[in-house]
Structure formats: structure tokens, C-alpha cells
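Hello again,

I reread your note about wanting to compare the complex against the isolated chains. To keep things tidy I'm splitting this into two emails, and this first one only covers the full assembly. Below are the input lines as submitted, including protein chains and any nucleic acid or small-molecule components. They are followed by the predicted structure of everything together. The single-chain runs will come separately.
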Amino acid sequence: MSEALDMATVAALVGDPARANILCALLDGRSLTAGELAYAAHVSPQTASGHLGKLANARLIDVTQQGRHRYYRLAGRHVAAMMESISQVVAVAQPRIRAVRISEDMRNARMCYDHIAGRLGVTLADALRENHHVEFADDGGLVTPSGETFFAKLGIDLDGARQSRRVFCRPCLDWSERRPHLAGAVGAAIARRLTELHWIARKRDGRALTITPIGWSAIERSFGCSLHDHTVPARPALRVVAG
Amino acid sequence: MSEALDMATVAALVGDPARANILCALLDGRSLTAGELAYAAHVSPQTASGHLGKLANARLIDVTQQGRHRYYRLAGRHVAAMMESISQVVAVAQPRIRAVRISEDMRNARMCYDHIAGRLGVTLADALRENHHVEFADDGGLVTPSGETFFAKLGIDLDGARQSRRVFCRPCLDWSERRPHLAGAVGAAIARRLTELHWIARKRDGRALTITPIGWSAIERSFGCSLHDHTVPARPALRVVAG
DNA sequence: CGATCAGTTCGGCCGCCGCCGAAGCATCCC
DNA sequence: GGGATGCTTCGGCGGCGGCCGAACTGATCG
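Full-complex prediction:
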């Protein structure tokens, strides 16, 4: 009974457009400053500050101060999971025509809290499934023995992931592609490893990802998939100079 | 971007105490009349009607008319999953002293959408895990080969459950016990089968469950667990007469 | 057919909450 | 120290939305 009241409180926090925008902006797992979040939420700094205070007070987000900046981030995976499940309800309940313009960068490859989403995420998940390295059900999955050796060869530490007490392997309905990509501990481990190998890299301030020229062929080779659906990799020299 | 707006809309629907109460009341998967829901939400019938209209309009609940009654139910598992994930955030974010009085009936055994929760749910999950019939990770799990035969012997159709495209097996943090019970397709199949066998039965209008005298020993025997933590089964003769 | 009951619709009241301007603190830089 | 900049607090305005009383619809029953 009182549980429902607490749930209403939490839901009401997410139920404000500005706060929902803030939480969505944090969904990629990074820390953002109050100013950046105010901009993302399309509200003034004072207003954002109020919202951030409420979210932090309810322990949906955490803060760390750094100089005169305050960095906010999601309080944990459980918050990301909640946002995802709300998004699922939206997808099921309001299957309206997707007139919304999704940036091509985001569609191609992006981070979804701590794993890879977008065309790249779906392509990788398809490849892993086709090669019987993983199996999916509606809201769960598992890594096959052949998958174990495959991930080991890639340098992905599955035992470590398993110890994290997270599920190994979980399909997550892709927001833009409407087909599952790989989430869970394995999804996070893959994203971590591919970043480490510089096969993928975050674009400057955004959830979008770049597939590096090295990564392009390396991913196609090791995952046995084709990335031809993706746009050509952005000129890396330019990016390095710009960065 | 617009996705965040939609999410805010859905979250705002859950964010009202009366509506949260309504959704929680429907969490056991049954259909309730508008009047019952008004009572559950502690609001007048007119007010409840307004809320129900909004929830139905947003496709969070479905309606069927029967005579002069209108029966409302959750629009699907995705809604139950969302409510569960919100509840998880509440549990993690507000670990305050549980001063709330939980009814002993509810703590002992209850339905959680379509599977068994409460002490019984946790006990069953523990037994299944101890006997290596299932394995759990943080947010996923699997049925072992020994589990397959175990469930088959109980008359639980795992293949059918697998075809439903739901995860086989998923731990779900128990609301009252703070430890995992078994959810997913297997959880639902177990609940269905145990009801079929009359080992458990719903108490009259509520999520709470009764363990029948037959069920008491049968469950202890077949699952290899002790139910001594549970209260003695309520007098069945009385219940039959009353029902 | 009137009476009753379940449920919804209408209308108006009221309070909560999101919003921004202005001011108040910190921190950093010269 | 002075003056930026980043963020928060305060205060008052305005509107959305939840609430209930009253009236309406439609089903059931004698």
C-alpha cells in the first residue's frame, strides 16, 4: 500500500519532461555538469538545479563536485533499467508512426548506458546469435560454450563479468532499430573491450559512437558480420586534429 | 528527445498516488471492476473513472465490459515489468526502515503478476537453487538439465514456456523478503501448475495465496524444502463454505 | 416500466509545482 | 582583489490537474 505511494513518488520524478530529459541525457552512463543538463532539458539553470536537487534527494542520481562544476550521473543500473522499462511501455503502448527524426550518427552506433546500441549493436547481436555464441529469449539469454571461447579469444573476461552478479546476457530492444541488441554484463564487457582496442570510440560529447578504421575490418573479421549498412567511418585525421 | 517526452507522459501517469494504487492493485494480473479499483485507490468512483480513462487511453490498462460492470486489467507484462523496475528503484534508493506493516498473509505467499512471491516464492527459489535445478545471476538465470527433468516430473511444460518467447527463468527481488524469487516463464508455469494441482489457491479477492493442506506436504516433498516458517494453513473447510 | 446500481461526464474549486528574475555563494583566472 | 563563471536559493506568478458534488447513461431486477 505505502509501496504504491513510494512508487508514485519515484514515477512522478520521472514524469516531468525536464527531469525525463535529464535522466535520458544521463542514460549513456556518463557524468554531465548541471549546465549541460540544463541545456539538454531546455530549461534555465535555476530550474534545472531544482530538478537535479530533487532527483539527487530521491537518490536517482549522484553528484560529485569538481572545482566549480558539479557532475551528475545516474545512481546506478537500476535507474537505467527503470528508464528502459518505461521506454518499452512507450514502444508497446504508443506504436505511432516514427516521424521523429533520429540523427544518423545515433542510429549507426551509440552507447546505451554501458553497452552498444544502434545498427552496430543490432548487427553484433545478430552475428553472435547466427554463430550460436549467444541465445536470446524475450527478456533473457545465455552465452553458449562456443560463445565462451569466442569471447575469451577477443580478450573479454567473462568470469569477471559473471562475478559482478549481473546477468551475462540479456536482449534489450533497440530504441531506433526496434530489434534486440546485447545488454547485461556481456554487453558491457564487449563495449569496454572494443573501446580498449580502439575499435570504437565515443564521439565528442554525445552517446554516439564512431567505428574506427581499424575497428571496421577487425569487427567484420572477428564477429563475422558485414558493416556495409553503416556510413563510412568519419575521417579520423580530422577528428584527431579537432579533438 | 521526443522519446523523453513520451516517457515523461507514461511516468506521470504512474506518478499519481491514486493511479499508482490502481496499477499496483492490478499487479497480480487479475481483472478488477472500476468500483473495486476506486476503493483500492481510496478515491471516489468519479475520480477513479477519470484515472482509469487516462490509463486506458495511454494503453497501460485494458477494459472489458460485462453486464453493468467494467473490468480493468494491465495491458500486458511490459506494464508489470515497468512497475517492478520502479519498485526496484524504490527498494534501492529508499532503504529506510520498513516501518510499514505488511500483512502476514501477503508476506507468506502472494501472486506477483503471474508468479509466486512472498516467503513461499523465496523458499521455492532457494530450494530450486540448492538442488541445482536453476541458477541465478543478478537479473537473469537459467534452468539446468536436472531442472528440466525436475519440472517435467512435476508436469510443468517447459517447452511450451520456452515457445512463449519469454525468458525461462529470471530472479525477481522479493518486495517483502528482500531476496529473489523466481519469475519469468518458469515462474509463471510453476504458479499455474501448483494452482492446477490445488497445492495453492488464491485467497478471496486479494493477491495473497493459501497453501492447501495437500499442497503443504506435496510441496515440501517434491521441492525438498521446509515450509515451517509459514503460518499453518487456514482452515480449508471454512474457506470452502465461505467461498 | 419505475427503482436501483455501476459507471461516466460535467463543472467548478483549490492546491501543488514548474517556471523564471533576481540575488547569493562558491571557484577560478588575471 | 576584482571580475568573470558555475551553480544554488529565494520569491512570486501562473497554470495544469486532481478532487468531489451533481447530473447523465445503460444494465438489471422485480
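For quick reference: The first helix of chain A runs from residue 2 to 14.

B.
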